[in-house]
Amino acid sequence: MSGLPNLLFSPLLPWPMLAAAAVLGLILVSFGRQWWRLVPLAVLLLALADPRLTRETATPLADTAVVMVARSRLPRPWMASSIS
């Protein structure tokens, strides 16, 4: 059984630092009016976010049951009528 791939992130820097770098980059680019510089900034931030495509595969296990048998000679309250 295989599912759809998942996109997982394992950032090299904490998320708040990446967000601050993105905001700072947007501010600097907006003052200079050079919007083409957003492309390298986006590529750098994406590389620092370290995205990965993963796909989980799982196979069902056979049904398993655990049975416990008590073999002690002690009387049990629910068996009081059968002991006498």
Present the secondary structure layout:
Layout: E1 6-9, H1 15-32, H2 38-49, E2 51-54, H3 80-83
Antiparallel strand pairs: 1-2
Helix pairs in contact: 1-2
What does this structure look like?
The chain is mainly alpha-helical and 84 residues long. The protein has a domain at 7-56. It is built from three helices and two strands, in the order βααβα. It has helices spanning 15-32, 38-49, 80-83; strands spanning 6-9, 51-54. The protein has a two-stranded antiparallel sheet with strand order 1-2. Helix 1 runs antiparallel to helix 2.
Number of strands: 2
Helix content: 40-55%
Q: What integer value in Å does the Rg equal?
A: 31 Å
N-to-C order of helices and strands: EHHEH
Task: Return residue spans where pLDDT drops below 50 for at least 5 consecutive residues.
Answer: none
Q: Span between N and C termini?
A: 56 Å
In DSSP terms (H or I, runs of 4 or more residues), the helix count works out at 3
The biggest beta sheet, please?
2 strands, antiparallel
- What structural category characterises the helix and strand content? mainly alpha
Q: Which term fits the overall shape?
A: rod-shaped
Strand order of the largest sheet: 1-2
Question: Roughly what is the average pLDDT, rounded to an integer?
Answer: 82
How large is the share of residues in beta strands? 5-15%
List the keywords.
84 residues; mainly alpha; two-stranded antiparallel ribbon; 3 helices; 40% helix; 10% strand; rod-shaped
